[in-house]
Design goal:
Layout (H helix, E strand, L loop, with lengths): L1 E2 L6 E2 L11 E4 L21 H4 L7 H8 L11 E4 L2 E2 L3 H6 L23 E10 L3 E5 L6 E4 L5 H4 L8 E9 L9 E5 L2 H6 L19 H7 L16 H8 L16 H12 L6
Antiparallel strand pairs: 1-5, 2-4, 3-4, 6-7, 6-9, 7-8, 9-10
C-alpha cells in the first residue's frame, strides 16, 4: 500500500542531492519510463501514434493529448518526492497478538504458562469473528473465544480497557495456531454468555509452513488430518488407447540427466506408493 506524503509535492530549483533515493527528477524532454506502465503516455492507455490507426479513441486519451493544462505545459525539470511505502498490514496482522522487540521485555514466555492458572488481563481489542484479545502480560496476548452471535449479549462488558480475571484454558503451538493462548471466563455471569471453552475450534495459519502434512496433522490437535492416497499411473499404451492420442511421433523432449542421489530419492519415493509396480 502506498500514499502520497503531504509535503510540497513539486519542488522547483532545489539543490538537494540528485542521488537522494527519496526524490526523483522528471524531465519533460526525457520522460522517465514506468516499469509497470511503460512510457509516461501509457498511463492513459495508448500513445497518439497508435491511436491514428483506431476507429474509436478514448476521450480521456484525447484530452491528455490536445488539452493544455490551466497552468500551461510543463517545460522545466521538476523534483518530486517519492511516495512513502507503508508496512504490509496483512503481514503485521499475522503477529497482532505477539509482542516483539522492546515490548516483549519482561513478558512471560509461552513455555512458562500453565494451563488452569488464573491470570489478570486487560481487554485490548474485540474481534467480531473470534473473540476478545486480552493482554495477560505474556509474550502473546490471549483470546477469549466469543461467537459472533454472542457479542450482543456480552454488550460493553468486554470493551477495550476492561480488566478481567481469566483462566488459561489451553497453550497451543504458536507455529501452527493464530492465537496460541486460549482463555476461559472465571466470572460466572460472563461464562454464561460466551461459548464453553471446549467448543472453540482454534484457527490455524499454515501459509508459511514448510512442514510435511503428516507432521502438521500430528501437531494440530485433531484440527487437521492426513491420510496417504494411492495413485495409479497409466502406461503410454493405456493412455493412447483411452484417449485416441497418437503417440507414435518421436519424443522431442530434452533428455534430463539425474545424479545417483536423485535416482535413489526417486526410487525411495516409488517404494512408498504401494501397488504401482
Amino acid at each position: 500500500m502506498r500514499r502520497e506524503i503531504n509535503d510540497p509535492a513539486v519542488l522547483k530549483g532545489t539543490d538537494l542531492d540528485p542521488n537522494d533515493e527519496g526524490w526523483v527528477t522528471v524531465d519533460p524532454e526525457n520522460p522517465l519510463p514506468n516499469p509497470q506502465l511503460g512510457d509516461l503516455e501509457r498511463t492513459i492507455g495508448l500513445p497518439y501514434e497508435e491511436a491514428l490507426f483506431l476507429d474509436d479513441v478514448d476521450a480521456e486519451a484525447q484530452a491528455y493529448w490536445f488539452t493544455e493544462p490551466e497552468e500551461g505545459w510543463q517545460t522545466e525539470k521538476l523534483r518530486l518526492r517519492k511516495m512513502e511505502e507503508l508496512p504490509d498490514q496483512e503481514a503485521e496482522a499475522e503477529d497482532e497478538f505477539r509482542h516483539t522487540g522492546p515490548d516483549a521485555v519482561g513478558r512471560t514466555p509461552l513455555s512458562e504458562l500453565r494451563e488452569g492458572a488464573v491470570v489478570q488481563g486487560e481487554v485490548v481489542a474485540n474481534m467480531f469473528y473470534h473473540g476478545a484479545q486480552v493482554d495477560i502480560g505474556a509474550e502473546w496476548d490471549g483470546l477469549l473465544p466469543i461467537d459472533e452471535e454472542q457479542w450482543q449479549e456480552v454488550g460493553t462488558s468486554l470493551a477495550p480497557g476492561t480488566q478481567l480475571q481469566l483462566r488459561i484454558h489451553r497453550v497451543r503451538d504458536a507455529q501452527l495456531f493464530r492465537f496460541p493462548i486460549q482463555l476461559a471466563a472465571v466470572d460466572a455471569e460472563l461464562a454464561e454468555v460466551v461459548m464453553p471453552p471446549e467448543e472453540h475450534k482454534p484457527p490455524m495459519d499454515l501459509r508459511v509452513l514448510a512442514m510435511p502434512p503428516e507432521e502438521i496433522a500430528a501437531r494440530s490437535e485433531g484440527m487437521r488430518t492426513w491420510t496417504p492416497e494411492k495413485v495409479f499411473l497409466e502406461t503410454q499404451g493405456d493412455f493412447s488407447y483411452r484417449t485416441g492420442a497418437d503417440l507414435s511421433e518421436p519424443d522431442t523432449r530434452k533428455e534430463v540427466s539425474l545424479t545417483r542421489q536423485q535416482h535413489a530419492a526417486m526410487d525411495a519415493a516409488v517404494d512408498q506408493l504401494p501397488g504401482l509396480l
